[in-house]
Design a protein that fits this description.
single chain; alpha+beta; five-stranded mixed beta sheet; 5 helices; 44% helix
């Protein structure tokens, strides 16, 4: 029995010694399988769509942070908005940013800004500690944004309702927060 096992082991070892490399067809099959799997994974993950979703999520979070800061400031000030918001005309869309002109030309918003001077500067919210900084919309396929024109708009209604909207959206129909 021991002799038979030894012969069997020797035959396996000899067989393994004779097989020294992969054949070309084996390598091609493995490469083809790996390529197919990589293609399927890449299509399933769709990185471009994930980047668009990430920028839209950031826009939603920024719009929510701005409107929350405005409302907390309003509560702390006995129901009054900061001066910059009080000076806006009800029902008019304003670009949030430090610019004083050029607010309706860049960027192009889904909800158009009323005029080139329809700008509202919310840095008082930062100064008063309600907002860490005035957010700037992440750039997708559209315009470049900066602290002058942030890519977010503000509209105050006569009944006190505030609407903050993002100028650009990529994978959603509209980014707007109303309170």
């Amino acid at each position: 029995m021991l002799y038979l096992c030894t012969i069997l082991i020797c035959q396996i070892i000899n067989f393994m010694k004779n097989k020294k490399a992969f054949t070309l067809i084996e390598l091609l099959i493995v490469i083809a399988i790996i390529s197919i799997i990589a293609g399927i994974v890449f299509v399933a993950l769709d990185p471009l769509s994930r980047f668009k979703d990430a920028r839209d999520s950031r826009r939603w979070a920024d719009a929510s942070a701005i409107i929350t800061a405005i409302k907390v400031s309003q509560i702390d000030n006995g129901g009054a908005y900061i001066a910059a918001i009080n000076s806006t005309a009800p029902g008019t869309v304003y670009m949030i940013g430090e610019a004083t002109t050029g607010c309706s030309t860049t960027p192009t918003c889904t909800t158009p800004v009323a005029s080139t001077t329809a700008c509202v500067d919310l840095t008082d919210l930062v100064t008063d500690g309600y907002l860490g900084n005035v957010p700037v919309s992440p750039t997708g396929a559209g315009d470049e944004y900066s602290s002058s024109t942030t890519g977010y708009t503000l509209k105050r209604e006569s009944n006190g309702i505030i609407t903050i909207a993002a100028c650009e959206n990529e994978n959603t129909t509209e980014i707007k927060v109303v309170r």
